[in-house]
Amino acid sequence: MDGRSRKVDGFLKKAKQWKEEFETLREIILDCDLTEDMKWMHPCYMYDDKNIVLIHGFNEYCAILFHKGALLKDPHGILIQQTENVQAARQVRFTNVNEIVELAPILKDYIKEAIEVEKAGLKVEMNKDIQIPEELQQKFNESPQLKKAFEELTPGRQRAYGFYFSKAKQSKTRVSRIEKYVPHILEGKGLND
Question: How many whole angstroms separate alpha carbon 46 and alpha carbon 52?
Fold first, then answer.
């Protein structure tokens, strides 16, 4: 078996945009002895059941995403941090199949390095800082039950709420957002659950 997944075959058959690019990336990645599956509605490639790289498309570009890309050396300067809040993953973006073909040997080197990172058990040091806006702290003071429920959420869920609440420019908007999500927090749910 060459590690191919029928689910990915189906994904590629249905692809309207980036089809040729996806197929080219698939061949490059499978040449690195990874196992293919669908995760998060995208082709995902694993080594020993650990996620190494994912293929995905956007309107302006398609990309491969290295799950622990922040740990790669990136001597060619091709890795991109999607947003300032993304801590571990890094993308390599493409707008046409020729760019992929040109970078194929370099991509294979990066994939092999990503496999070595996984074999070594390396982990990305996550920024554990959670923004607690004044309005949320006030709500915690009023409701110890809410504070306890918030503290029992995973750190990622806490960060997502803290970031979302803090992002509002006006205090009344922050209060409104907090009020809206109090039931979610009390139920142990994340922002997008």
Answer: 5
Residues 127-131: contacts with CB under 8 Å, at least 24 apart: 127/87, 128/155, 129/159, 130/155, 130/158, 130/159, 130/162, 131/159, 131/162, 131/163, 131/165, 131/166
159/33: higher pLDDT? 33
User: Is residue 57 within 8 Å of 51, Cβ to Cβ?
Assistant: no
- Half-sphere CA count of 28, side-chain side, radius 13 A: 25
Structure confidence by residue, pLDDT tens digits, 103-126: 999 999 999 999 999 999 988 876
- Whether residue 1 is predicted with pLDDT greater than 50 in this model: the reply is no
Cβ neighbour number for residue 165 with a 10 Å cutoff: 22
**Mean pLDDT throughout 67-76?**
94
Distance of CA 23 to the CA centre of its chain: 21
Please state, as a whole number, how many other Cβ atoms lie within 10 Å of the Cβ of residue 46. 19
DSSP code for 126:
-
How close are the terminal C-alpha atoms of the chain, in Å? 37
| Residue ranges of domains in the chain, CATH in brackets | 6-119 (3.90.1150.200), 134-186 (no CATH)
